[in-house]
């Protein structure tokens, strides 16, 4: 059996579509960000690295996997 070379995401980690609550711009945000993610349109903070789980400051529209 061949060793898998594909990347296996950690359980619970995924990409989410987040809509900025300031301007409505949609961004894809990883659920376990390591640095602050800001809206590309207005600069609003969408996610912050709080431990291992980000805290989205926008509306999650769903998974973007
Ligand atoms: Zn925005």
Description:
The protein is mostly beta strands and about 60 residues long. The protein has one domain: Single Sheet (N-terminal domain of TfIIb), CATH 2.20.25.100. About 0% of the residues lie in helices and about 40% in strands. The protein has no helices and 7 strands. The chain has strands at about 15-20, 25-30, 35-40, 45, 50, 55, 60-65. A 3-stranded antiparallel beta sheet has the order 2-1-7, with no helix packed on it. It has a two-stranded antiparallel ribbon with strand order 3-4. The chain has a two-stranded antiparallel ribbon with strand order 5-6. It starts with 14 loop residues before the first strand and ends with a strand. The mean pLDDT is about 80. The protein binds zinc ion. The site of zinc ion has 8 residues, from loops. Zinc ion (ZN) binds near residues 20, 42 and 44.
Q: What is the fold's blueprint, element by element?
A:
Blueprint: E1 15-20, E2 26-30, E3 37-38, E4 45-47, E5 49-50, E6 53-54, E7 58-63
The protein binds zinc ion.
Compute the separation of the termini in Å: 27 Å
- How many strand elements? 7
Q: Report the CATH superfamily.
A: Ribosomal protein S27
Helix and strand pattern: EEEEEEE
Quickly count the helices. 0
What is the CATH fold-level name?
N-terminal domain of TfIIb
Strand content range: 35-45%
Major sheet description: 3 strands, antiparallel
Q: From the 3D coordinates, which CATH architecture would you assign? A: Single Sheet
